[in-house]
């Protein structure tokens, strides 16, 4: 739908939009009030049961992992084990309270968003969907939430503890408590809290009116001109809801600043302990005010700089380390300031993390079926994947192999970014802006440059791929026909290092709850494929959706952006591989 031109057209469009918006908002609110108590009870009761049921296991296994790890010294192990009950009690309180609050928010907001989504493009029988959407889907979504919560509390927790036990001390020196610097570190932490909490809270309160009115001005300007989030018709209800809820967002930003000031100030104790200097801790307390002031100016698009001083608080600090600094550093990779999505002529791609992850994992099923046909993935791997411990070949090797193929595709096409299978290139300008996702994208970009510098041949690429898939298992590497390794010991070691980095990144991704929940679908698919092959089946398996793509699928996040039909998808699967 094209944006209306002229003032009268935009004004009339705005007036006609208001009744529909308030009607949908009222209907969604009624559904939210009806379903909120039920959803809150489901999430709060089940999550609380999970927390209390796994509490003895968490206490025992944490103590066991701390005692067995070589990363910590004996006094530090004793200190952690003594104060572990306090941490567990806090975990129970925070977990139960957080589950209750999360249940209230999910139960109330999910029906509202589903009601607005019911009038989107491509929807038929809109009137019925306005009443039906957000009812059963919210209830089923609450069970998905508790399932994901269990995966985090059990599977992800076990994986983290396993890494803790296996990780060795850096440079051969384990971490130990220096009792001499504990008292000054505690004093510095208390002073940091006393200074930072009131000052940062005052700064946040002073800047909150600016955030409120500037946000409203930007949203209303986009609404009248049908720009920004109001450009697409389906986004108009959500953007209109953002106008109404913007004061709550401002209040949340102020409260978030007040809470973060506690940790920002208490970090002065860490500075004192790391730098072995109480003076550096005091300098950090002053510098932290400047760090927050500059970061908030950057977020609110205010003039750069700060009225607070930023003294040096580390011995070997070349540049000020702050959130604002890291943000500006990442923005320096961009040739210009990010352009707004305010017109149809803007060609800048703004990828979202979930869409990017979905693209990276879309080929996992296709490669998995291919590996089953080549017997690189065996029935033993599938049976191990069904167990609690899981299979490294399917759980880590297969996703890492797909990520490697994406990196190789980027290198072979001489692209500066990462080239996905749909020819979408992820560069420094269109990458997701979430700082959290930079933890994964930046290592991929570094790995791509390392692979490019190796100038691999086709045989070496195939060897590296199978090395990643089989997780370096020497017996499997000998049995599998993957070709001979590079003759150079140096090159072989470099390929081994690249394979380990890919597997490490993939293992971090595998700890996310959606990965564990929907990864079981992939195991079932590969099991059926293997059974078809063993029974001599000749028909390709017909499924409507990629299994590992579902890990970050639109359905998992209540989005529907795929336009591929079942017939097209089935023909694609049949073309990719046919189980003989």
From TrEMBL:
Keyword line? Membrane, Transmembrane, Transmembrane helix
Q: Where are the transmembrane segments?
A: 7-26, 32-57, 78-109, 185-206, 227-246, 252-273
InterPro entries attached to this UniProt entry: At3g27390-like (IPR040229)
Q: Which domain of life is it from?
A: Eukaryota
Mitochondrion in keyword set? no
Does the UniProt entry include the keyword Cell wall biogenesis/degradation? Answer: no
This chain's protein is named Steroid nuclear receptor ligand-binding
């Amino acid at each position: 739908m094209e944006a209306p031109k002229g003032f009268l057209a935009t004004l009339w469009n705005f007036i006609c939009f208001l009744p529909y918006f308030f009607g949908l908002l009222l209907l969604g609110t009624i559904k939210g009030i009806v379903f909120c108590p039920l959803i809150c009870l489901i999430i709060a009761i089940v999550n609380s049961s999970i927390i209390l049921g796994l509490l003895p296991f968490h206490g025992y296994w944490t103590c066991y992992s701390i005692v067995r790890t070589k990363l910590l010294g004996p006094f530090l192990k004793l200190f952690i084990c003594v104060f572990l009950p306090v941490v567990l009690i806090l975990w129970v309180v925070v977990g139960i309270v957080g589950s209750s609050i999360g249940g209230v928010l999910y139960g109330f907001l999910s029906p509202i968003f589903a009601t607005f989504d019911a009038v989107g493009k491509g929807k038929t029988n809109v009137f019925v969907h306005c009443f039906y959407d957000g009812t059963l889907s919210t209830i089923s979504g609450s069970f998905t939430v508790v399932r994901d919560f269990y995966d985090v509390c059990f599977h992800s927790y076990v994986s983290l503890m396993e890494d803790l036990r296996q990780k060795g001390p850096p440079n051969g020196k384990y971490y130990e408590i220096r009792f001499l610097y504990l008292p000054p570190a505690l004093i510095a932490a208390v002073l940091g809290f006393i200074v930072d909490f009131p000052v940062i809270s005052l700064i946040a309160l002073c800047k909150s009116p600016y955030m409120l009115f500037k946000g409203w001005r930007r949203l209303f300007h986009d609404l009248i001109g049908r720009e920004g989030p109001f450009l697409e018709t389906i986004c108009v209800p959500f953007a209109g809801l953002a106008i109404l809820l913007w004061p709550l967002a401002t209040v949340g930003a102020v409260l978030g600043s007040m809470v973060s000031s506690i940790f920002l100030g208490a970090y002065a104790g860490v500075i004192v302990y790391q730098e072995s200097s109480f003076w550096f801790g005091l300098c950090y307390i002053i510098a932290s005010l400047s760090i927050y002031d500059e970061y908030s100016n950057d977020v609110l698009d205010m003039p750069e700089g700060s009225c607070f001083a930023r003294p040096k608080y580390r011995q070997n600090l070349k540049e000020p380390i702050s959130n604002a600094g890291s943000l500006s550093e990442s923005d320096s990779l961009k040739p210009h300031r990010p352009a707004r999505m305010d017109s149809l002529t803007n060609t800048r791609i703004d990828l979202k993390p979930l869409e990017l992850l979905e693209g990276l994992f879309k080929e996992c099923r296709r490669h998995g079926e291919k590996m089953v046909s080549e017997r690189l993935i065996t029935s033993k791997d599938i049976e191990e994947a069904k167990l609690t411990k899981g299979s490294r070949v399917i759980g880590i090797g297969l996703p890492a192999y797909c990520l490697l193929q994406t990196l190789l595709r980027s290198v072979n096409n001489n692209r500066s970014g990462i080239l996905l299978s749909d020819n979408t290139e992820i560069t420094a300008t269109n990458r997701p802006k979430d700082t959290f996702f930079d933890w994964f994208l930046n290592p991929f970009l570094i790995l791509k440059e390392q692979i490019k510098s190796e100038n691999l041949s086709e045989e070496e690429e195939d060897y590296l791929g199978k090395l990643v898939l089989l997780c370096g298992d020497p017996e499997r590497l000998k049995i599998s026909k993957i070709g001979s390794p590079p003759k150079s010991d140096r090159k072989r070691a470099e390929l081994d290092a690249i394979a380990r980095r890919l597997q490490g990144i993939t293992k971090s991704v595998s700890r996310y709850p959606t990965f564990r929940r929907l990864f079981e679908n992939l195991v079932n698919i590969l099991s059926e494929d293997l059974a078809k092959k063993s029974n001599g089946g000749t028909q390709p398996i017909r499924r409507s959706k990629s299994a590992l793509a579902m890990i970050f699928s639109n359905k998992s996040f209540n989005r529907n952006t795929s336009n591929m039909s079942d017939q097209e998808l089935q023909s694609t699967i049949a073309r990719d591989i046919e189980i003989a």
